[in-house]
């Protein structure tokens, strides 16, 4: 399969916002690129300008590359913000399991490629603003979202 990641309009996008349960504006969507049938899944996410994804914790190893726009990543430890960085186009990151953060699209939004390795099938936990787990995202639940 060939996919032009810089022209992603032909992909099947799932919209995850807005979400009025949170005090920050949610505005992002995701598309499934590939799944190897085992432990690896590739996803493309795009953020609206100035909008966030849900606060979450990684349950697996994640590598990501910013393809368009810019993405602010705010990291938390023990419920407190410990860092905030802006990732520009071309920025590559390897995030370990357990990383707790939220991301926000820059002035033009952002498009980011995510490559996840999840031997137990668990990807992320969506958290409320106090850090309590609301739901666990798994490879199986992602595949169901995109099944037609």
UniProtKB/TrEMBL annotation:
Gene3D superfamilies: Jelly Rolls (2.60.120.10). InterPro entries: RmlC-like_jellyroll, RmlC_Cupin_sf. This is ChrR-like cupin domain-containing protein. It comes from Candidatus Paraluminiphilus aquimaris. The lineage of its organism: Bacteria, Pseudomonadati, Pseudomonadota, Gammaproteobacteria, Cellvibrionales.
